[in-house]
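Table S2 (continued). Query chain:
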Amino acid sequence: MNCENKQRNLENCNCTYACSKKGICCECISYHRSMRQLPACYFPKDAEKTYDRSFEYFGQLLNEGKV
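Corresponding output:
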């Protein structure tokens, strides 16, 4: 994704959290990676709403076949 094309990135962003990085994918990924997390776009809609972005939660969803 092009970090400079915020409007286009927002079309594919499923994050429901109000954040200054929304639509600026390179900043979002960097931020979450620094906290051992994945951004919202890696999670299904119902899982995204939990705001649990942890690697562990993502792994749980993988094991359950939800991702």
